[in-house]
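forwarding from the other thread:

> can someone predict this with pyridoxal-5'-phosphate?

sure thing
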Amino acid sequence: MDDIVKRIEVLEERSKALEPASAERRSLLASLQAHTEQFLDGIEDDRAFKKFTTSPADLDIDGEATDVKELLAIYDRELQQKGLNPASGGHLGYIPGGGLYTSALGDMLAAVSDQYAGMYFGGPGAVNMENALIDWTKEIFGYPASAIGNMTSGGSIANLIALTAARDKHGIKNEKVSISVIYLSEQVHHCVQKAIRIIGLEDAQIRYIPLDAHFRLDANVLRLAVDNDRQNGLIPFLVVGSAGTTDTGAIDPLNEIADIAEQQNLWFHVDAAYGGYFILVDSLKERFAGISRSDSLAVDPHKGLFLPYGTGIVLVKDMEAVMHSQHYTANYMQDARSGEHPVNPADVSPELTKHFRGPRMWLPLRLHGIEPFKACLEEKVLLTDYMRRKLADMGFRLGPEPDLSVSFFWYEPEDMDTDTFNKRLIEHIHADGRVFLSSSIIAGRFVIRIALLAFRTKKSTIDKGLAMISDALDRTKEEFAK
Ligand SMILES: *Cc1c(COP(=O)(O)O)cnc(C)c1O
């Protein structure tokens, strides 16, 4: 017994380092704060993209205790000085992220208190907070209070949960799989195709519905396709529409799809991961008409609400359909089940224990109120318009008028291959890096995308980007003139 006590004393002494005392906590926080202040103070003038060579990174776990200042220097060198800066307002590529400072403070609260957000019994306040955010999301999209929701890691898992519910609602399994039909737009996000495979529907029939001139799903083609499949003895059961496609920012005709889904008994899922929160802008609301008629929807606060990466939300009207796959009981969980409690987040998601995502969204929304969010979203739409007009003045060709804040452009040179020219143009843009743009292939053409959603993107950022594009254009022209 004495031996054990002695050993415990030794171990207690050694493990003490895991609980820094007050003075040390302040000192750590001061170091971190100095680092983040420097990062944020420099972010406007720093390049959004830095070309990098992969060198052996100094990130290995060597088992030794290291001073925090040295670790922050490594963080700067290995992460902040390499590649894309997603927190920069100059990030106009892919779908930009956010990184609200007040959200980081929320994360700190969540981590320090380490609240449990998986089950109501373990974390009633945490579950209530997430439910308050989910209820607000239901209101925004006109979903009934009876709908169920979950805060996920992002849009991919939100879409996965919704599609699993669609599968189970329609009992798509065994021999039914290969005669079941899923309708997707040609511009559907690839996480939907991944979800279909993950949930065992790889062998279902997948119909890609062509798009109209504005890259919106053509509802007439959808209607004919569903009729045709039914006549052929197949089982149409799911249609996925987008409220803001990744490549072109288009919103599908949601009301028309909802009509077809109702008539044909299809589950209607809307992927609003990128575009959903634009519904907050009064002048844009009308474009989302019909979204409330969907059976499920996925939206990403880490896009449209400018949160740091790691937060999506799924809403599903049919609770039973979700619970079929996600609810499971185990003996060791018996204390945590009660019919009187709100539904446990763990019964709506594959996750049991998870990052407590509530405070990173709740704190900014409560601290700032909703107006700055609305203003920031509307600003992005107007900046997109502004940038398109300027690009047209510079001689670029533009994609169709976008529904939201994603668009594309390309240059049509005389006497040479257009794609070759634009591929070289984006290389020059990346080498410059003041502002980051990404490219895509749309309607068979190599194009340069603009995606405005970073909350730090301002008119001055766009002007800087336009100057950069102009320089890159001159350089590309010169190069090919030789
Ligand atoms: C980003 C995005 C997704 C994927 O969401 P993640 O949060 O990256 O997992 C799905 N659909 C659309 C339209 C998106 O823009």
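The two ends are 87 Å apart (CA to CA). thats all i got for now
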